[in-house]
Design a protein that fits this description.
The complex is a heterotrimer. By secondary structure, chain A is of the alpha+beta class. Chain A is built from 7 helices and 4 strands, in the order H-H-H-H-E-H-H-E-E-E-H. In chain A, helix 1 packs across helix 3. Classes of the chains: A alpha+beta, B alpha/beta, C alpha/beta.
């Protein structure tokens, strides 16, 4: 099991302490940790458990319940393909299939080199520009299957 | 007096207390609504199984009777076609995601799912499809987890938090993938689980069970010449329940008779070793009090508690008594003293302990508990439930058994003090009886220590023994022990001696005891879940009262053991055979 | 600068109104450029347009005379990005960053309208200069979206200048809690989140509870795929929602309000937090507001990616740091809610409407809508419709008006098949329902429900069985897993749907699926499970022949279900260019360049559709 580094431990304690006056702040704490660290592995959960007096199993249950929390680190580029209804009826399933096919991973997985993660998103509210894909916050509108390869090439070149 | 409301069930009028759930109210009126996950007033994932659905006039949709409170004028139908169909459908869906091998399941005969499937008329293979990915964890000697049998009732999750304050189990993932597991779906062996088995006691199906050692014992009969069995005090307080006896019926005589018919070389009572433990521990305490040793001293006969200490309070290990638990002492004495006296090779001896406990299945594997020629002091631990299984397997009819006595062979005698080990406060009372005698030379008045009996979270007593003030405390269930432990950690503990039991109520409510499931106990009162512990406790207290010898230090076999073999209590030989050590660097979530 | 008394608030409002009016009238010689900042427009260049405008104006030294603001969603998403110019309200559509120079030179400086950026009405082919001239906007009435698309959502003064806090002032100076509730009851306002429960009644339950602590919770966990109404309201005019929450708090005598917003809406969250901070700064949120003794604090909590947290009790559990699993009811949140205190949970849109109702009076509000569904509803119109976007129409508007008059009909001349309302909890409405008035009860009577307002149009190229399967996949993914019928039942339903779409099902399976669907509907613990079967049941009723085709003929009439369709190159139309073969990921297309028509090997084809989308000659069909 990985050993958590001291400075990471300190930072987690800081985050917990910063919310100590708010009632039941577990989700806020985990969201902040997810944002800063990119993932919330068991070692980190143990520290949170100790600081917040919540059983580790309960924290693990919360982390695995919500899609936003990740046990494993995500890739450098997180490709989120919206599979909401509006995007779906306009063919976003083919788009996510294409991304997965080219990157050789399944939805939710990260490429072995840690560069890309492909996530199936549940409606990001961009229905007007369906099908929509976000990559690290940048939204691609009205995407078609034939543009997928080009987009990946953009990121391969280290662009963006 | 609670306000009463008028309700109708199946058109018949009743008056019940306001605020009761429909399920409870119906029971009082003579209706047992089929239910599954509901347990002990909401100590579960409330209203999740959707088996207990009933029809309520005017309500939108069907209603979960385990959670819905009655109100004035409510009209309930349990037998409406809609409700019957709904209950059946919930069960059928559960069955479609459930392991199908009931024949091999240890819970067969006491499975609440199978019971409710029969009652609701669930059809064979009404729904078929993929199964949630199964985790089968057999690593921990004490507990086995099989998620293919889990119905996500949430009882175990609540129980671990409630009894132990640890909360080892939780629901993980979401939707169809949801399972109940320790964090990271670790094995119980690789998480800070103390293997107390409280979760097993509440599980409605075979998802949680003890790790069976029946085949190990069967094999021993072919590999070892002398298979010797010893039974814990708490076993006799409950074993009869496995054969239909009412809770609180003493079963000592029949239990011994059954064991005599199972081929064991000798049938001994762990109470003997309990007396031995008291001699060692009381002396240890007095030595610490005299020589400025670490106080308070903490009892160490509950392996669930010892696991907890190692995982969560390793800093207070020096406070723990180094005494082994009674059955481990028993095993060590059998393989040394008993073997020598009878000229037996210890390698030919296989010691089986019948315990109310699952943590002892783990305890016996600890290398620190192997005193004689590196052989484990105890080779196999069977729970009370496992004993009942092998008794039934051998065709023995319980209620036709006579009462028989334990074998009187060097280590057969026991005192009333040993008997009460099985109840919370029992070890303390036993120890005080002996400590009193050690300090005053007189026998204590038996009722002097009654303060440490009962089910309050923490019991305290302050005694003045010949000018020496002795402050003691007793707790059961690790959640209750925590304040005492934190005191010790802070250095503010006012006590000299603390008894800590891992299970709420003590060993009589251990993880290996017969299940107390009201649905299978139609002859018990409706509130049996609130009274069964006291009923079992009274079996032990009354057996204590029936003994002639009430104090450990008056056990003549123990006296002879010291005289002929051990020497001084807490002396060199006693330390070799009867004392153990603890692990201070136990990792809670070791690497995979 | 704090606002300490009701009179100070009135003064402040008056001066802001004057300022804002001046901004739009241009009477002081200024111009205002409002750029639509909705997600659709931002993703197609609106962000660049805004920064370019600001840069160029500064270069020309015009930054004091011409203001540039990013405002809330205009709603006409298929025509974005937009700029609205004041004075005059000229609407430029499909603006590109390259157009910025022209806009500044020709309109801002030159005062001329740029013709090619004006919307052309497809029916008349005439230019429509302002929103009042455009069909898409004509039938809309902005109540929940009041201020959205007009005020700068990060500017408190503009909000105050456009109606905000007038209602709050009225409440706090002239009304008692019960009077506020009475007014809301009179208005007939029903929950806009999907349930349609009378808002006034919910508040009444909470007011009737005796407790020193009560809470108002705003449900911003808009998880219906295809719905972005709440996001647009929060991004467009967060002040309106906060005001609604505070009025609700006053009505039930609560002292704190919690927003629960999806984490997928970072802009909405930041606008909300900014608005709260601005209101705290002036003392309109906090202790002893306006010196009246009313204390109210507002907090923001984020979701973390769980659709089920839109269910009110799951939402409460989520705020309490737990898995988002619902609670059995009773007790209802109004009695025992957040941290076991009396709590009302209201949708964003519901709260946004409250200030309007109070400000203009219930009598005004009830003039709109139908008998049992008063007021307006915001819809997110999406799917196979020309004018995809956000609209707010009075209840009672028909589906035909929504799809054809406002939505502009089905693109590419395709035939209308169905419109799905209520997302995964709703059902589909078909040709026969087009003239039905949209209101809560009518939609339920016709097998669907209002839901939060997502409305997805489908055409002949959509397979309704596939749509039902899609929604069921969503439900299975988002089911919390607590109760048996939803956790296992929906999975079994999905398995049936997979069987059907893969041609492995029998007629008995259809019956079994129907029976199971009713079981899930009847027995589930919460709304997610109770409505999970709706898409299946409604499509089975309305499109039974499509199901039969999948089951008996093993065919997908719409050529969508992969195992029941194939891509086929029409040999006569094939120009032998080989483009399809080049893009095929499994190299299953064979042929000789320029010589022989290309041929897809149906055994190797993975039905990805690449060839279909790249063929320049439409020679490939689905069949």
């Amino acid at each position: 099991m990985a050993v958590i580094q001291e400075h990471a431990k300190r930072r987690i304690k800081e985050i917990v302490a910063s919310h100590k006056d708010e009632p039941t702040p577990l989700l806020i704490v985990l969201s902040q940790i997810q944002e800063e660290f990119g993932y919330i592995p068991l070692e980190v959960q143990e520290v949170v458990s100790e600081e917040m007096n919540i059983p580790v199993a309960e924290i693990y249950g919360v982390v695995t319940f919500y899609s936003f929390f990740s046990l494993k680190p995500k890739g450098k580029y997180i490709i989120g393909v919206c599979l909401g209804t509006a995007c779906y009826v306009k063919g976003s399933q083919n788009i996510i299939d294409k991304f997965c096919e080219l990157l050789k991973i399944k939805p939710g997985e990260t490429t072995p080199d840690g560069k890309y993660t492909v996530d199936a998103l549940r409606c990001i509210g961009a229905c007007a520009i369906a099908p929509a894909v976000t990559i690290n916050g940048k939204v691609y509108a009205n995407l078609t299957v034939d543009r997928v390869e080009k987009i990946i090439k953009e990121y391969e070149g280290g662009a963006n | 007096m609670a306000k009463l409301v008028n309700i109708k069930i199946e058109g018949k009028s009743f008056q019940v207390e306001e605020g009761l759930t429909i399920l409870k109210a119906a029971k009082k009126c003579g209706f047992e609504i089929p239910s599954l996950c509901a347990f002990n007033d909401g100590k579960c994932s409330l209203a999740s199984c959707r088996v207990c659905l009933v029809e309520v006039k005017g309500a939108r949709g069907l209603v979960a009777s385990c959670a819905y409170p009655v109100n004035e004028g409510m009209e309930i139908s349990i037998s409406s076609a809609r409700a019957v169909k709904a209950r059946r459908s919930s069960v059928e869906l559960l069955l479609s995601n459930h392991s199908k091998n009931c024949q091999q399941c240890s819970k067969n005969g006491q499975c609440e799912l199978l019971h409710v499937a029969t009652i609701t008329g669930a059809r064979d293979d009404a729904y078929t499809g993929e199964l949630t990915r199964t985790t089968l964890d057999r690593l921990a000697p004490g507990i086995v987890r099989d998620t293919s049998k889990c119905i996500l009732c949430g009882r175990c999750v609540v129980r671990c938090k409630e009894a132990q304050g640890i909360g080892i189990l939780g629901q993980e993932f979401r939707g169809f993938k949801t399972i109940v597991a320790p964090a990271d779906n670790r094995s119980f062996m690789h998480s800070p689980c103390i293997q107390c088995g409280q979760c097993i006691n509440v599980c409605p199906t075979g998802a949680l069970s003890e790790n069976s050692e029946i085949s190990a014992v069967d094999k021993a009969f072919t590999t070892h010449k002398y298979v010797i069995v010893q039974t814990a005090p708490a076993v006799r307080a409950a074993i009869g329940e496995e054969f239909g006896e009412k809770i609180g019926t003493p079963g000592t005589g029949k239990m011994v008779a059954a064991l005599h018919r199972l081929g064991f070389y000798r049938v001994f009572d762990v109470n003997f070793s309990a007396d031995l433990t008291i001699i060692e521990e009381a002396n240890e305490l007095l030595l610490r009090m005299k020589n400025g040793g670490k106080l308070p001293q903490l009892t160490s006969c509950s392996p669930g508690w010892v696991n907890y200490m190692e995982y969560f309070y390793p800093d207070i290990i020096p406070h723990a008594s180094t005494c082994k638990s009674p059955h481990e002492m028993g095993g060590a004495i059998i393989k040394s003293y008993f073997a020598q006296k009878h000229n037996l090779d210890p390698k030919d001896i296989f010691v089986v302990s019948i315990m109310p406990c699952t943590a002892k299945k783990y305890e016996k594997t600890r290398p620190e508990n192997a005193a004689v020629e590196n052989l484990p002091d105890v080779d196999a631990v069977l729970t009370t439930r496992e004993l009942a299984k092998i008794i039934k397997r051998a065709g023995i009819v319980w209620n036709k058994l006579p009462d028989e006595d334990f074998d009187d062979d060097l280590i057969g005698e026991y005192s009333g003090a040993g008997v009460i080990f099985g109840v919370t406060g029992g070890v303390m009372e036993a120890a005080l009886r002996t400590a009193y005698h050690a300090l005053t030379g007189k026998e204590a008045d038996i009722v002097a220590f009654k303060e440490v009996r009962g089910l309050e979270n923490i019991k305290e007593a302050e005694l003045d023994i010949n000018g020496t003030k002795v402050r003691v405390a007793v707790s059961h269930g690790m959640k209750n022990a925590k304040p005492l432990l934190d005191q010790i950690r802070k250095g503010t503990s006012p006590y000299h001696f603390i008894e800590i039991m891992g299970c709420p109520g003590g060993c009589i409510n251990g993880g290996g005891q017969p299940f107390v499931k009201p649905v299978f106990l139609p002859n018990e009162d409706d509130d049996i879940l609130q009274t069964y512990i006291q009923k079992r406790a009274s079996v032990l207290y009354s057996e204590d009262e029936r003994q002639i010898v009430r104090q450990s230090h008056n056990n003549k076999d123990v006296i002879r053991l010291y005289k002929d073999f051990l020497g001084e209590p807490c002396g060199h030989k006693a330390h070799e055979l009867l004392h153990t050590s603890y692990v201070s660097d136990r990792v809670r979530f070791p690497g995979k | 600068m704090r606002i300490n008394t009701p009179q100070e608030l009135v003064n402040k409002i008056r001066s802001c109104e004057k300022c804002l009016a001046q901004k739009f009238s241009g009477e002081t010689g200024t111009k205002a450029l409002l750029v639509c900042g909705g997600l659709g427009c931002i993703s197609t260049g609106a962000g660049d347009i805004i920064s370019l405008l600001k840069t160029k104006l500064e270069e020309k030294g015009l930054q004091d005379k011409v203001s540039v603001d990013s405002v809330g969603c205009f709603g006409f998403c298929s025509q974005g990005p937009f700029i609205r110019v004041y004075p005059g309200e000229t609407l430029y559509r499909m603006v590109k960053p390259e157009d910025v120079d022209r806009i500044i030179e020709e309109d801002v400086i030159g005062g001329k309208i740029i013709e090619d950026l004006i919307y052309i009405d497809p029916k008349t082919n005439q230019p429509a200069r302002t929103e009042k001239d455009i069909d898409f906007f004509k039938k809309q009435i902005k109540i929940a979206l009041y201020g959205s698309g007009i005020i700068n959502p990060e500017n408190l003064d503009e909000a105050l200048g456009y109606g905000s806090f007038r209602a709050f002032h009225k409440v706090i100076t002239t009304m008692k809690s019960q009077e506020v509730i009475d007014e809301i009851l009179k208005s007939g306002l029903r929950g806009r989140g999907g349930g349609g429960f009378p808002t006034g009644r919910k508040w009444q339950f909470a007011l009737d509870q005796k407790s020193d602590v009560k809470y108002v919770v705003c449900n911003g966990d808009e998880g219906d795929p295809g719905a972005f109404m709440d996001r647009s309201i929060l991004e467009g005019n967060p002040f309106a929602v906060i005001e609604g929450m505070m009025i609700a708090g006053y009505a039930i005598q609560a002292t704190a309000g919690y927003f629960y917003v999806r984490a997928e809406y970072p802009l909405a969250v930041s606008r909300l937090k900014k608005a709260i901070a601005l209101l705290e700064e002036v003392g309109l949120i906090g202790d002893n507001i306006l010196g009246t003794g009313f204390n109210f604090r507002v907090y923001v909590r984020l979701g973390a990616g769980a659709f089920v947290c839109g269910e009110e009790t799951a939402l409460l559990n989520s705020i309490e740091g737990q898995r988002g699993q619902p609670r059995p009811r009773p007790p209802f949140p109004a009695v025992k809610g957040l941290w076991q205190k009396p709590t009302i949970v209201n949708n964003v849109e519901t709260l946004a409407v409250v200030p309007y109702v109070i400000r203009n009076g219930a009598d005004d509000f009830v003039k709109l809508g139908t008998e049992k569904s008063k007021g307006t509803k915001v819809f997110a119109l999406g799917g196979k419709v020309n004018n995809v976007g956000l609209v707010e129409v009075p209840m009672g508007t028909t589906l035909r008006e929504l799809i054809y008059d406002i939505g502009g009909g089905i693109p590419h001349g395709k035939k209308f098949k169905a419109i799905q309302t209520g997302g995964p909890s709703g059902g589909c409405l078909t040709e026969k329902d087009l003239d039905a008035p949209i209101d809560y009860d009518t939609l339920i009577a016709r097998g669907s429900m209002m839901g939060s307002g997502g409305a997805i149009v489908m055409d002949e190229d959509n397979c309704m069985v596939d749509v039902a399967k899609f929604y069921m996949e969503f439900i299975c993914d988002e089911s919390c897993g607590k109760c048996t019928p939803c956790r296992i039942g929906t999975k079994r339903m999905l398995e049936y749907l997979q069987k059907i779409t893969e041609g492995r099902a029998s007629l008995e399976d259809l019956d079994a699926l129907t029976e199971l669907a009713y079981a899930v509907k009847e027995n589930s613990l919460c709304g997610l499970g109770q409505t999970a079967a709706n898409p299946v049941l409604s499509t089975m009723i309305n499109f039974r022949d499509e199901y039969i085709a999948h089951v008996v003929d093993k065919k997908c009439p719409a050529h969508v279900c992969k195992k029941l369709m194939e891509y086929y190159i029409i040999p006569e139309k094939c120009k032998k260019c080989g483009k399809c073969a080049r893009v095929c990921p499994v190299s299953c297309i064979s042929g000789v360049l320029g010589k022989t028509p290309f041929l897809i090997d149906p055994l190797k084809c993975i039905k990805c559709g690449m060839c279909y989308s790249v063929c320049p000659f439409d020679s490939i069909i689905k069949r």
